[in-house]
Structure formats: C-alpha cells, structure tokens
Design brief:
With about 170 residues, the protein is mostly beta strands. It has one helix and eleven strands. The longest helix has 4 residues.
Length: about 170
C-alpha cells in the first residue's frame, strides 16, 4: 500500500495468478521473476494476465484492472539474399506502376507471405511507395527529374506479421 496522504489517497497493487509466476512487484515497478517459454502460454501463443490497482480516496476503495498480454516474438527475422539492393528506373517511368527491377527477395520461403514492408525513410522524400504493405514491389509517386537528382535512397523496414488479440 502506498500512502499519498497529502492528497488523501492511497493505492495497492496486486498481480493476477497468471502473471505472478513470471513477475513480481517491487514497489510500483513490475520486475521479471523467471523467463517465459512457449509452453507457458495461456491463450494461443500468448500469456494473458492482469494487475489490479485499488485506489482508496476519502476511504472509498476504487478497483481498477489492467490486463496485460505478453506476445510471443519470433526470434527468426526474415532473411534476404542481399543486405542492400540497387535498381535503375528511367526518369519517364509511369507513376503508380510496379517497377520490375525494384524488388526485395526474401530467401525464407516460409515467411514470404507473412512479411510487412514499410519505407522508413527516403531521400528525396515522397518519390517512391510500396505497392502494398505486404508487397516488396515499389512504385513511383512523383516524376523523376534526373537533372535535379540522379540518385535516390530508400530505407525499408521488414518484419514478420504478428497477430494481436486485445483483451477487454
């Protein structure tokens, strides 16, 4: 119990039974007690639990529950046949059409359909876009002006899809 008598309130924190196996409360800090393995999952591949906070204001207890979902992270990131890619595009290439020479090639066949692509940065900005977040194909969004800019740089972030289930 934490007393904040200067404002007339106090609160207590408690872990639900599921989280109690893996975590402990050190004051108001949630700390790891033991590692979590796939066999510990309580909901699919995830662990779902709760922390209850009871706030007492003017002698009246008000319970609040925070539900926590610990999601399994895939420890094998996508693998590509190159660490960087170079491609050429004519400055008169049409807008919003896939550029055949501009594709990333994942070598991990199992995860190809489960990848999400995102252009994190590009220089100059707003010239390229991905055909979709699940496609490694690029398209032009603006006309290239070779006389003004002869090289363009893209930084693409790729990760495997994860299903999120929100607990109410």
């Amino acid at each position: 119990m934490y007393d904040t008598s200067d404002v007339g309130t106090s609160f207590t924190l408690s872990l639900g039974a599921t989280l109690d196996k893996f975590f402990y409360l050190d004051g108001v800090t949630l700390r790891v007690k033991s590692s979590i393995s796939r066999n510990d999952a309580t909901s699919g591949n995830n662990i779902v639990g709760s922390i209850t906070c009871v706030i007492t204001a003017s002698g009246i207890p008000i319970p609040n529950t925070l539900y926590i979902q610990i999601i399994k992270i895939n420890k094998s990131p996508p693998v590509f046949d190159q660490s960087s890619y170079t491609f050429s595009v004519n400055d008169n290439y049409p807008l919003n059409v896939d550029i055949p020479s501009a594709q990333l090639y994942a070598t991990d066949q199992e995860s190809i359909s489960n990848l999400i692509y995102n252009i994190e940065s590009q220089s100059p900005e707003n010239v390229f876009r991905l055909a979709s977040s699940s496609s490694p194909k690029f398209q032009l969004t603006a006309t290239l002006e070779y006389n003004r800019e002869s090289k363009y740089f893209l930084n693409v972030y790729v990760l495997k899809k994860v299903k999120y289930n929100f607990v109410k």
